[in-house]
Amino acid sequence: MHSIRSIRSLAFALVMLAMSAAAQAQIAISINIAPPALPVYEQPVCPAPSYIWTPGYWAYGPDGYFWVPGTWVQAPTPGLLWTPGYWGWNNGVYVWNAGYWGPQVGFYGGVVYGYGYVGTGYQGGYWNNGQFFYNRTVNNVNTTNVTNVYNKTVINTTTVNNVSYNGGSGGTTARPTAQEQAAAREKHVPATATQVQHEQAAKADRNQLASVNHGQPAVAATPKPGAFSGSGVVKASRAGAPYTPPAQHATAQPPANNQVPRPENNRPENNTPRPAAPQGATPAARSEVPHPPAASQPETAPRMENQPRGQNMPHPETEPRPENTPHPENTPHPQAAPHPESAPHPQATPSPKIEPHPEQAHPEEPPHPEKEPERPQ
Question: DSSP readout, 7-75?
Fold first, then answer.
């Protein structure tokens, strides 16, 4: 019974290991903005035998793209080679395909990472009887520390333009070969713990952000994983291409920054508040009242508001007609003033409203006859 449980535990562990390795080789993240160009930098000296060069790359975090320096890494097992990760265009987004260790180098998007990674395969060295032999033509090797070396000219058939992604606008157009497809089906080992820590250290350093270094990181390559300072750290000599800040922040939040969908912002008083202000305070404000006759009266005859007779008229809408007549104000004869009550339309005789003749305002004041009978009392 105990042996059965042990076998089951071992089988479960093997399945989880296989799933972990597969997950590492699968998609890690996707974004709709292409990464910057690969920076130009020199390779540090190989620190010791069995170290294999892993090129730098642009990773993506909460603050955008950041540069993970190239570094020398010990292979987890002799005989394994490193297939770099790469960004690939897929269904409208750029997808990160994580790197992995395997007996052969697989497809890495045709990206020319340099130092043996010429877009397909690896020409920086090979394993022989558990020892790694370095091609000095493409590797910076000190023969005092590393004796397994050889010289072989590398013919690069791919245009070196520092492009860091495959597909999409401006990306490489490489497709996996039959050999690379076969390598993809082989057993893989995910990135080592030191490689993961190396990427996390780059993520924590804000100077590695593309938005800060503009495609030219101060730490472009290191002699060992996590060594971001000290001797052997290499700075990028220049950016691979002029850095252009991504436009994703302007397009990612159009509803939050755009007030067009809000109907209250489309009201006329909100769109044109200043042209109405110089037109006179009272008429402009009353033009919004749903009773246009009351609003139009103060514009042409402001004195009519103080007369009770005009307010009690049954047809106020006809009042603007006599007010627009140019003759009442020029009429010099106030004789028509005593007969406003008998006239069926007092609007036609607005002459009593004229103030230039104040003496005409007293024809209705005959108080003296009423006070005379009080004298004999």
Answer: HHHHHHHHHHHHHHHHHHHSEEEEESSPPPPPPB-PPPPP-STTEEEE--EEEEETTEEEEE-EEEEE-
